[in-house]
Amino acid sequence: MTSPLTIPATPSPAVRWTPRLWGTLLVLCAAMFLDALDVSMVGVALPSIGTDLHLSTSTLQWIVSGYILGYGGLLLLGGRTADLLGRRQVFLVALGVFALASLLGGLVDSGPLLIASRFVKGLSAAFTAPAGLSIITTTFPEGPLRNRALSIYTTCAATGFSMGLVLSGLLTEASWRLTMLLPAPIALGALAAGLRLLPRSAREENHAGYDVPGAVLGTASMLLLVFTVVQAPGAGWASARTLGSFLAVAVLLTAFVLVERRSPSPLIRLGVLRSGSQVRAQLGAVAFFGSYVGFQFLTTLYMQSLLGWSALHTALAFLPAGALVAVSSTKVGAVVDRFGTPRLIAAGFALMVAGYALFLRIDLDPVYAAVILPSMLLIGAACALVFPSLNIQATNGVEDHEQGMVSGLLNTSVQVGGAVFLAVVTAVVTAAAPAHPTAHAVLDSYRPGFMVVTGVAVAGLLITLTGLRDRRPRPSVVVARSTVEASASASTEAEAEAERVAVRD
Predict the structure, then answer these.
(1) Class at the top of the CATH hierarchy for domain 17-199+267-474
(2) Where does the record place the Major facilitator superfamily (MFS) profile domain (predicted)?
(3) Which end of the chain is less crowded, N or C, counting CB atoms within 10 A of the terminal residue's CB?
């Protein structure tokens, strides 16, 4: 595909927001909405699932961890597969698998089968997420159009995450199976619409062959890393099992890097990471999602275990943050166009740090409007600024044939950040757990976890601040390559004529 050479100042007739273009975006947004919805809905339903299927706490953990394992472990492979085999094809097949796994998860009567369905759903999401993001970045030209599309796309993720909490609280009152079945009809509807609306994408011409060793090593290292982090709080961070697993991850990653440096068609082209803005986007994604997942985990425990709030009450407490993100969806793209991604990411992390710091004021009898609500609004504003900006920054300046690769890398950073820092926060809170668990003592054990969450957000802010020295390029009009060549040729002829005139004079 041929990309525009410069960022457009105004939409050209070829890329207006036609009904078909809107339909394409809505299909991709539906898939991202489902990914986020599925992550948040299952948490509230776990107690009911455990009672109905007679599952232990450790088995219930794998209903969540199975999804994370499939999702985080296979994103790199999913992104590159979309580039090589066609984004439309990969997206639609994976979305169909997601729908079938959702149907299976709502009908099974066995813990292992439910965990298997969750793993398959995570696996399919590992292909739909990077394929969907790369379809957007190759359909909408870099600049205001793409920024607007990405702001809507990422807003759907935040909205799905927020609505998942509320819907799960409502549906679980009837049956936990409804929380598993709900994504199936939505996915099937998106699949039917996608078959008609999604643009056909050509496969990348790959004369060098496929990077099978890189795919095996990359997938194995990510799977083992996520598995090790998820298991570490239970097995012990200093246990021989955990340390041995981390050592094996390091060996696999080293081998992966060596293979990628020599492969003619690598799973990840390491040269992409020579870009400072790309590295800051990836590290920012780790800090952003890692801090938020840890915050949500601790806040849910605080509200339900200490304050005695119901699942629905807790979900509604988080709702202002999600509502703020949804309301701002149409505005963020224009703000990015004006101020650039580094400034918005820095501003968002600053708001996030402020929100987390304010939440440290919690006690056993909080006034929601004075203590919890301000934090939720600040964190919602931060999510509205940071998440779309990270996606825009990571995909800007990347060739079309590598958009899937970069999308998979960004989503991997998000998932690994969430898994790693959730495990760290859990370990910190567990280490501070009181011998005599009074309400005040339990609250005091949560505070170090909230401080870790705040520290991760501060690290994200500091990383982002290093990019503020980069000057934001000014928007310019899109010109075709042939126009550039003609202009250059005309300019050369004009200079030559001027020299001939000067010689005659």
Answers:
(1) mainly alpha
(2) 24-472
(3) C
